[in-house]
Amino acid sequence: MPVRTDSQSFQADVLADVLQPANNQSVSSLKNIAPQKRTAPQKTNKSMLPAPPKDSRQRFKRYVQTLQDNICTGLERLDGEARFQEDIWQRENGGGGRTRVIREGGVFEQGGVNFSEVWGKGLPPAIISQYPEATGHDFYVTGTSMVLHPRNPYVPTVHLNYRYFEAGPVWWFGGGVDLTPYYPVVEDVVHFHRTIKQACDQHHPDFYSVFKPWCDEYFYLKHRQETRGVGGIFFDYLNSQSSLYNGPHPEGAAAQKNQASQTSQEVNQQGTPASHAESYSWEALFSFVQSCGNSFLPAYLPIAERHKEQPYGQRERNFQLYRRGRYVEFNLVYDRGTVFGLQTQGRTESILMSLPPLARWEYSYTPEPGTPEANLYDTFLRPQDWANWKTTKTKATKTTTV
Questions:
Q1: 10 Å Cβ neighbour count for 271?
Q2: 20 to 30 A from 153, CA-CA: which of 15, 261, 333, 375?
Q3: Does residue 212 lie within any of the structural domains?
Q4: Active site annotation includes 159
Q5: Which domain of life is it from (predicted)?
């Protein structure tokens, strides 16, 4: 089992979340296009953030390592042929991790499921200004990150990331999961979203309603004016004092849902001022992240199982490779971890591991009207309320490929 001393892709991802300024201006030169702007973590009040448990770092680390193990075991069973190859690596300035890659299998053309923990000194002013109590403290960040690229065009690509940051008394959680199908079936998309929503609803009725549109917002290719896929959930800077939404679009759907949530809390907290802190305590939010992470296999495996043997031809393969090009475009232009890693001279091979092994581009491609390819654009690459999708809504509700 090789041991590396260079940084890996997830290290770039988590460091980007922690060390970039709020507006991302320090990493804006790649192809002269800046990543998405982000706001600094916004407190709902200015009181001292409750300290995390003394064993918070170890508990979250153990969880994401277990999640990595469970996901890899489930995916190997699904694939039936290939097994994950593991690299254990160390970071010279503090930290390390486990990079696991699966290639040329029965289902997966290429994929990675990674664990990382990183610690160090120095926080940007944007964080210090919001949390002056973090001044002088070392930071610690850990989590797991995953991207899977199946070979069969009827099996969707999928991405997952859950992470935890801590600096002295300051802490927050972040992450999410999203699905990128090429020939989507509406029942699959509904199943994926309802499974995730169920995990969210166990902890707070507003989590999914805010984090789902935030996911649609984040995984959006502005230059193509389309979403990367059918979404899932996305959240960041989540702690007992934060707003549910901390993104850059105050007029967007996620911000509006967040405002409605805050208004509802203000009404409900009359006479019970501790309800917000109890719902968003470290323990409550850690439990929420665990539910989200544990929901991945039930959300994804049934979809992959249904389609992994589905016959396909060169037309479907070409369209899959063309749509994979969108995945490449998003990661190289907008993804914080990829851009940050490349511009800080991280290990290129590891940083680009999230990219598909094959992709293609075609000049001015337009799908023929009425085809499954056209329906992907017309129905699935637009934000939809998948968790509440009605079976009579459109022709996309048929059980066959749409």
A1: 6
A2: 333
A3: yes
A4: yes
A5: Bacteria
Q: Which of 159, 191, 203, 249 is catalytic?
A: 159
pLDDT tens digit sequence for 127-176: 788 788 889 999 999 999 999 999 999 999 999 999 999 999 999 999 99
> What is the rounded CA–CA span in Å between residue 212 and residue 254?
8
Domains in the chain, number: 1
38 vs 40: CA distance, rounded Å: 7
Residue 291 within a domain = yes
Which residues contribute to the annotated binding site for a divalent metal cation? 149, 159, 193, 223
- Asked whether residue 22 is assigned to any structural domain, the reply reads yes
Cα–Cα dist 293/344, whole Å: 29
Q: Which residue stretches of 181-313 are H helix?
A: 186-201, 207-218, 253-268, 275-279, 282-294, 296-307
**Model's pTM, two decimal places?**
0.88
Residue 125 sits in a domain of what CATH number? 3.40.1500.10
Please report, in range form, the residues annotated as the binding site for substrate. 145, 161-163
Residues making up the annotated binding site are 145, 149, 159, 161-163, 193, 223
* Structure tokens, 200: 């969210």
